[in-house]
Input
Amino acid sequence: MSTILVTGGAGYIGSHTVIELVKAGYDPIIFDNFCNSKPAVLARINKICGKNIPFVVGDIRIREQLEAVFNNFKIDGVIHFAGLKAVGESVQKPLEYYDNNVNGSRMLLSVMKQYNCKNFIFSSSATVYGEPDVVPITEQSPVKRANCPYGQTKVDVEYMGEELQKADPEFSIVLLRYFNPVGAHKSGLIGEDPKGIPNNLMPYLTQVAVGKLKELSIFGNDYPTKDGTCIRDYIHVVDLALGHVKALDHCLNKAGVHIYNLGTGVGYSVLDMVNAFSKAIGYELPHKFAARRPGDVVQCYADPKKAKEELGWEAKLNLDDMTADSYNWQKNNPNGYED
Ligand code: NAD
Ligand code: UD1
Output
């Protein structure tokens, strides 16, 4: 079976994907510098997989560290999760974001080309669509200039992959545009472990639920939506991980640029999420309304038809699974991987 280098494989989405790769018969190698993850995740991944997954501590910006991996393993393809992802931080530190996300991706692609490894799957984001003109969003919707450095790094790496594919048509470049990943592995052993106060909705909800945070502030209740709060396409991280497996199955050694939305196609409002979470915990989750968050899009949800038709993939887990699994992870690991 094929050997797959998973950059950022110790992170939230990477760790779940490694498990699904093993289940599908692939041989993943984790490559991570732990700048936003903890080595403790590795033992948990091994426990779930029932075997030790090779891992390398390294930085995608350092050529020699990447070359060492390619010298030691015959790598058939790369799934590239490694990157920085905090929108607010990217506004404060744009150069760090361009360095890590854009230069890091450039270095990775350069080393892949050097070793004749031409299968690349990239973690892109629905953020490349900006404020969409029409929902649901298809892959044909225009990619827009992003409103923050983080988002722009996704746009830039997408273009870099496309330009490289034009120049070297043997490359298979897969751009997976994730909508809003939430949830955790059923075992409760791995999940999302944000540093400090979470910026994203689901980890904030779970931390209120376990009493680490007092109440959720809902950013804006005067949007032109059914209940005035923003709409997003939340997708269970295990479904998302399976999307990567299907993308590999379909696109490995299939030269070209392949772009897929990975979402459920269903939009939920922030209030829908609060209600679903309240149902999961059995009482009303403390919340209040607050000012809009600058940069938020009103509604964003996928048309996932292309991935279904071409990859044979569709999200199976529903909102109850997402809330229950997120809560289960947080309850079992109130301090994330610290314990
Ligand atoms: P994460 O921070 O949990 O995982 C990223 C991993 O990459 C971390 O383990 C980090 O230590 C590692 N890393 C970062 N820079 C590195 C470098 N220079 N060298 C080696 N390792 C490095 O994030 P995640 O939520 O798992 O996201 C994975 C990818 O998916 C990211 O590229 C992110 O931008 C993208 N994405 C995430 C979301 C989301 O909501 N989580 C949505 C859309 C796209
Ligand atoms: C955010 C990023 C986006 C990134 C995505 C995944 C911004 C402006 N956008 O998107 O670029 O790709 O995360 O990492 O940061 N909410 C609250 N209270 C909270 C937290 C969130 O009401 O404490 C609301 C938000 O206003 C939004 C929804 O919940 O309407 C989802 O927020 P979030 O989880 O941050 O995801 P996105 O806004 O989709």
